[in-house]
Specification:
This protein is α+β, with helices and mostly antiparallel strands. The chain contains 4 helices and 6 strands. It has a 4-stranded antiparallel β-sheet, sandwiched between helices. The chain starts with a helix and ends in a 6-residue tail after the last strand.
Length: 121
Amino acid sequence: MQLYATMGERLVKLLAPDYVWIAEDADHQEHIHRQEVLAHYFDTIYWANYYCPGYLDKNTEKLFLNAPVGLVQHLEGGIWYQLHKNFETISNEEATRIEEEVKSYFSELNLGRVQWRYMAG
């Protein structure tokens, strides 16, 4: 997955997308609609995310830049936010803990979910 993140970061520089997400599964794909992306709406934070310049309002951008959990960096004027550097080597329990911390920290955004891994249960 880190290879996908590296590829995503490089493709951002080439393609200048509005929004990028990287997740283990594609169950969310049918729930993301073009008009929502164009309206700069989101309700999920995935393992790795890119928001173009201006995609996030100033308050939300500050939330990302000051996040106590995850990795955040400016990328092509936008924000790259990743829940953790290592996708494959972290335990499900640790991934769940990080998801909960992120959901709590970003609670004012009324997220539908934070998704690291698909865990059938």
